[in-house]
């Protein structure tokens, strides 16, 4: 089969590789229909994340069941599915408690196990979820990032009627806007330095948009007639991780979803906001809970089926998988603007 294999820093190759085979009774082989680039793929491409040399890349996908092991019963050949790419040990203390996102051995496919930038991918049956009939393959390829966002919101104490600020309007931030509405937010503030992203944020229901490159963030926040109950950091920028602490009201919450790929240096005035405003700062990792892979996954599929979670406006590029090497190069070296990129093997 054809696949995108990562060999070294910025060395991604479209090439022939071995197709997966049924080896265990609970194996499921899936013919990949759609697979998206995640921000963590970009960092791994730049050698800021683990992988084995020559590993088939990618972890967000949807597809059609091609073959199944003898003990697989909840999906059948021909079913439309998505897959949870997280591999957990099911044996450590945290797994035994059902805290799978805290598994001591957690990794995702595309690093130590072949990923989904390929014609076919293999997962254990417990990682495979059947799609509702009205959820298309593009949407299903984004169940994983949606589950990651949902996991964070489940960790908050957010109540209906809350005001939520989202800092960073990439895919995670745009999904966070939609999850804010599902959790009952009455007012949603979207913050970014890219007006194009803010336009998309408005299509997803942001009530207020702030371009913090063009206007003073503190002044813009002061004009909004609501206290911010929950501030979500979804950019992973060393700058915004400090800045987001200035947003919530006293006693409010900060949800950290963005992954920084450099050291964080925080201004004293930002750190003091945690203390003086008695903020609850919540870290969130991956999108797993019990029963595995968790309510984040079933809830995402439900809300995609109802139309409360939409992904189409996020997707800027729909490309053949063979375009992978040049696309990653263009993203990393900023040769073209991209929103969400979807590949079709």
Summary, kept brief:
This protein has 345 residues and is α/β, with parallel strands linked by helices. The protein has eleven helices and 18 strands.
Structure characterization notes:
It is a single chain. Helix 6 (195-203) links the parallel strand 12 (187-192) and strand 13 (208-211). The chain has helices at residues 39-45, 93-96, 137-140, 143-155, 171-182, 195-203, 217-222, 238-243, 268-276, 295-306, 324-332, and strands spanning 2-8, 11-16, 27-36, 55-56, 60-68, 80-83, 86-87, 107-108, 120-124, 128-130, 163-167, 187-192, 208-211, 230-233, 253-256, 280-283, 315-320, 340-344. Helices cover 26% and strands 26% of the residues. The protein has 345 residues and is an alpha/beta fold. The protein has 2 domains: 2-142 and 311-344, Medium-chain alcohol dehydrogenases, catalytic domain (Quinone Oxidoreductase, Chain A, domain 1, Alpha-Beta Complex); 147-283, Rossmann fold (3-Layer(aba) Sandwich), CATH 3.40.50.720. Strands 3, 5, 6, 9, 10, 17 and 18 form a 7-stranded mixed β-sheet that branches. It has a 6-stranded parallel β-sheet with strand order 13-12-11-14-15-16. Strands 2-1-4 form a 3-stranded antiparallel β-sheet, with helices on one face. It contains 11 helices and 18 strands. It holds the Pfam family ADH_N. InterPro entries: ADH-like_C, ADH-like_N, ADH_Zn_CS, ER, GroES-like_sf, NAD(P)-bd_dom_sf, Zn_alcohol_dh. Keywords: Metal-binding, Oxidoreductase, Zinc. Residues 8-343 form the Enoyl reductase (ER) domain.
């Amino acid at each position: 089969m054809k696949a995108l294999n990562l060999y070294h820093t910025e060395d991604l190759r479209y090439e022939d590789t071995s197709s997966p085979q049924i080896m265990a009774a609970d194996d499921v082989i899936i013919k990949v229909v759609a697979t998206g680039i995640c921000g963590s793929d970009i960092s791994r491409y730049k050698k800021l994340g683990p992988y084995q040399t020559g590993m088939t890349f990618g972890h967000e996908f949807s597809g059609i069941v091609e073959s199944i092991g003898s003990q697989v019963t909840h999906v059948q050949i021909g079913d439309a599915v998505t897959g949870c790419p997280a591999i957990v040990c099911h044996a450590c203390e945290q797994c035994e408690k059902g805290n799978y996102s805290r598994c001591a051995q957690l990794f995702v496919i595309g690093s130590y196990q072949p990923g989904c930038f390929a014609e076919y991918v293999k997962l254990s049956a417990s990682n495979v979820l059947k799609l509702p009939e009205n959820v298309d393959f593009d949407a299903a390829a984004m169940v994983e990032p949606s589950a990651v966002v949902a996991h964070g919101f489940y960790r908050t104490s957010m109540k209906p009627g809350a005001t939520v600020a989202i800092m960073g309007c990439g895919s995670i931030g745009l999904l966070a806007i939609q999850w804010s509405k599902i959790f009952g937010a009455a007012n949603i503030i979207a913050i970014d330095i890219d007006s194009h992203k803010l336009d998309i944020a408005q299509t997803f229901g942001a009530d207020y948009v702030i371009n913090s490159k063009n206007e003073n963030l503190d002044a813009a926040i002061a004009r909004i007639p609501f206290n911010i109950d929950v501030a979500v950091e979804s950019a992973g920028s060393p700058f915004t991780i400090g800045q987001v602490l200035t947003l919530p009201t006293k006693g409010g919450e900060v949800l950290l979803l963005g992954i920084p790929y450099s050291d964080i240096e925080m201004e004293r005035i930002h750190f003091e906001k945690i203390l003086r405003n008695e903020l609850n700062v919540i870290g969130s990792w991956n999108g797993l809970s019990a029963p595995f892979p968790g309510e984040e996954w079933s809830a995402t599929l439900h809300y995609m089926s109802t139309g409360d979670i939409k992904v189409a406006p996020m997707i800027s590029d729909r490309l053949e998988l063979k375009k992978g090497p040049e696309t990653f190069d263009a993203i990393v070296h900023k040769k073209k603007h991209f929103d969400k990129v979807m590949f079709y093997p």
